Amino acid sequence: MPDSSEKFVAAIDQGTTSSRCIVFDRDGAIVAVDQREHRQIFPKPGWVEHDATEIWSKVQAVVAGAIAKAGLRADQVSALGITNQRETTVLWDRATGKPVHNAIVWQDTRTSGLCNELGGTDGQDRFREQTGLPLASYFSGPKAAWLLDNVPGLRTRAERGEIAFGTIDSWLIWNLTGGTDGGKHVTDVTNAGRTMLMNLRTLQWDQSILSAMNVPEAILPEIRSSSEVYGTAVGQLSGVPVASALGDQQAAVFGQACYDTGTAKNTYGTGSFLLLNTGNRPVPSKSGLLTTMGYKIGSEAPVYCLEGSIAITGALVQWFRDQLGIIRSADEIESLAASVDDNGGAYIVPAFSGLYAPYWRSDARGVVTGLTRYVTKAHHRARGPGGHQLADP
User: Fold this and answer.
1) What is the pLDDT of residue 3?
2) Distance between CA 333 and CA 326 in Å, rounded?
3) At CA 313, angle to CA 193 and CA 55, rounded to 5?
4) In this structure, are residues 107 and 276 in contact, taking their beta carbons and an 8 Å threshold?
5) pLDDT of residue 135
6) Which among 164, 187, 287, 345 is least surrounded, fewest beta carbons within 10 Å?
7) For residues 109 and 366, is the Cβ–Cβ distance under 8 A?
8) Report field, pTM of the whole predicted structure over 0.90
9) What are phi and psi of 325, to 5 degrees?
């Protein structure tokens, strides 16, 4: 059991397929971890949803589990931070605290047509100067607009201020700090920057884009830095400051100590994301990369990044397991791939959510090619745009 006077910090990691809570001691060592998966909902081809209420329930469970495993009281937790799947969009009723629809996940492609309409004669780059982002189904703003236009009566209620919009960080912070009883409706710059509604230079909601997308400002959270006290938790962590939020890939940039201009990280999870620190100024890309927020610590100057994004890498293993039934567990992938000398000429391009960098083609779909009678389930190797290898299932 830890010394009763010792202090700890807790981190909620709310990801695309599961939620975790990790407790760290003052030296950064992991004291306890608890993790639980949540459902993936696929209503139509290309559509991906989550139940935001289920996510909140699982987050509460993993927080309780990690604190119990660590043998801690709430007053031994100095602060709570959040990292989250980016772009996943939740709209909820401020009075009841209930989501008005399933969350639309970042992988979802239903807004492809809307993005084409918004591009008009300017195309994908219509808002790139202000936001650093191409018009693509990946981002949150069009998802919010789609919900407002497709859930009966929602737009009217939103314009009256009855509805709240948020990415998963906002949804969790609001619930953690009281929900319908005074919950704080905020987001940080890294998550706000992925909505396509925030101006990268002012770090505020861009009125011209809100007007173009017909998203009422009344639903939006307040934009804050990535490290400050947003509010105080209630419930099982009563009194603990909720003091940090970063989108998952930006959290990895900070966690991997990419503090200097020119340092970079690449992570492999549901997708793969390479982020390069460009310092205190946004750098436009001519090669299909995203110009995005890196982090902002309190009142310090913001740090920007260039990002290359691939939607599906690790999730391909999950697809082999859950949709095709080729494997029973993820760890079978390695031994299966090792059982053959090469890929036998077979390739998979897992464009299940379109192609991200550098093409930004929401209409692309997955392809299997090079099949012969020689090929077995052990031969498939996933290849990305241009034939770059993504994984070895």
Assistant:
1) 63
2) 10
3) 60
4) no
5) 93
6) 287
7) no
8) no
9) 70, 20
Q: Which of 10, 15, 13 is nearest to 31 (CA)?
A: 10
pLDDT of residue 387: 40
The tokens describing 126, both together, are 């219509």
How many beta carbons lie within 10 A of that of residue 251, not counting itself? 23
Tokens of 17: 């397929």
Beta-carbon contacts of 71 under 8 Å, excluding residues fewer than 6 positions away, are 1, 2
Reported as a single tens digit per residue, the pLDDT across 240-297 is 999 999 999 999 999 999 999 999 999 888 888 999 999 999 999 988 899 999 999 9
CA-CA distance, 274 to 266, in Å (whole number)? 4
Number of residues that make up the chain: 393
Q: What is residue 358's DSSP assignment?
A: T
Extract the residue ranges of the chain whose pLDDT is less than 50. 381-393
Report d(CA 258, CA 266) in Å as an integer: 11
> Residue 391: what pLDDT?
38
Q: Is the peptide bond before 358 cis (omega within 30 degrees of 0)?
A: yes
Per DSSP bridges, beta strands 303-310 and 290-295 are: antiparallel
Return the residue matching tokens 């006290």. Answer: 229
- Please, which residues bridge with residue 381 across strands? 347
Residue with tokens 């100067």: 129
- What are the two backbone dihedrals, phi and then psi, of residue 380, each rounded to the nearest 5 degrees? -70, 130
The interaxial angle of helices 52-70 and 168-176, nearest 10 deg, is 60
* Whole-number pLDDT of residue 385: 45
Cα separations in angstroms, 206 against 56, 130, 303 = 29, 8, 19
What is the reported pLDDT for 311?
82
Cβ pair 226, 188 in contact under 8 A: yes
Radius of gyration of the chain (CA): 21
Residue 291 DSSP class: E
Give the neighbor-by-neighbor strand order of the sheet with 89-93. 49-50, 103-104, 89-93, 163-167
